[in-house]
Design goal:
The protein is an alpha/beta fold and 310 residues long. Strands 1, 2, 3, 4, 5, 6, 7, 8 and 9 form a nine-stranded mixed beta sheet that branches.
């Protein structure tokens, strides 16, 4: 098989309901150059293998089983199996637009300093369901929504980093930093995150560029269980833990985390009162405040762990 310039990778864990559509959207790409689709089965116990086998007659499709649960682990496995210079990651519950790979390919070919690129993400609601009144634009981002406009933007603020469900990275940069950090990223039902933010910080520090490409469009399915307030509170909790871990990995751990977390908790509660008449913004601020409890919990555990080692 000729050398592959770009590899599309799907890391999946028990999502057989959506996986077929994700794979099909990649195999149907309007892309003339050589490419491959790698499915990393991350310890699934459902029909994932069967879904892939139904499409096994397409020579562009590869399958690998990774028993160690964790999104970052699965992404690293996908990178090892893939042969492309550019690695494009699509979530197992997302559908890529026809030009997705072409947009990424053009961007990397035209900019040798581009390390990371991602595109716009719209939401696919379950049939007969509309966006709840209590769901703010900010919390919709927790479902994967990502829209920085209609023009290409070079990201300078890590907080605006592309979403992992619609994400690409240059292999040479990934190798330079040693791969995705397995301490960050989702592990089973634990909603750890912030791995993309950390990657963007690292890229900018090393003089690389990170881009938002609106034409690299992906639609993300909203699972019915994510339409409950409890899911967003849980997501906020794990976001707080993820932020704490990211700071610790960056050498910013310590007693100062307790002050930062406490200040943010109070700020979140105060703002929830300010937006009392707006159900969406009120709930948004409550989720933020609840996340700071997760942050503080992780910070205290970190301090106790450090104390025990002394």
């Amino acid at each position: 098989m000729p050398h592959t310039q770009i590899s599309a990778i799907i890391c999946t864990h028990n999502r057989d309901t959506y996986l077929g559509a994700a794979i099909d959207s990649l195999l149907a790409q309007d892309f003339a150059a050589n490419f491959e689709v790698v499915v990393v089965d991350n310890g699934s116990s459902d029909r994932t293998c069967e879904v892939v086998e139904q499409r096994a007659n397409d020579p562009r499709l590869k399958y690998v089983f990774e028993p160690i649960i964790g999104l970052s682990v699965a992404r690293n496995t996908g990178a090892k199996v893939a042969s492309g210079d550019i690695l494009a990651y699509l979530d197992d519950d997302a559908v890529a637009s026809n030009c997705w790979l072409q947009v990424f390919d053009d961007a990397y070919k035209n900019n040798s300093k581009l390390a990371i690129a991602g595109g716009k993400v719209t939401l696919l609601w379950p049939q007969g369901v509309q966006q709840p009144r209590w769901l703010s634009p900010g919390l919709a981002a927790n479902l994967g929504a990502y829209d920085l406009g209609e023009r290409k933007i070079y990201i300078e603020q890590p907080g605006l980093t592309p979403r992992g469900l619609n994400y690409s990275i240059r292999r040479s940069f990934l190798a330079e930093i040693g791969g995705f950090d397995p301490h960050l990223g989702r592990v089973g039902k634990n909603l750890l995150s912030n791995e993309e933010l950390q990657m963007t910080e690292c890229a900018l520090q090393k003089g690389w560029q990170v881009a938002y490409l609106p034409e690299a469009l992906v639609a993300h399915n909203v699972a019915p269980e994510r339409l409950k307030r409890s899911w967003f509170l849980n997501r906020g909790w794990w976001q707080g833990i993820s932020e704490c871990y990211r700071e610790q990995l960056a050498g910013k751990a310590g007693i100062s985390q307790l002050q930062r977390g406490s200040e943010r908790f109070v700020r979140g509660l105060y703002k929830s009162l300010q937006y009392f008449s707006d159900p969406a913004e009120r709930f948004d601020k409550l989720v933020y405040a609840y996340g700071q409890i997760g942050y503080l919990n992780a910070a205290i555990q970190g301090l106790l762990s450090t104390s025990d080692k002394k």
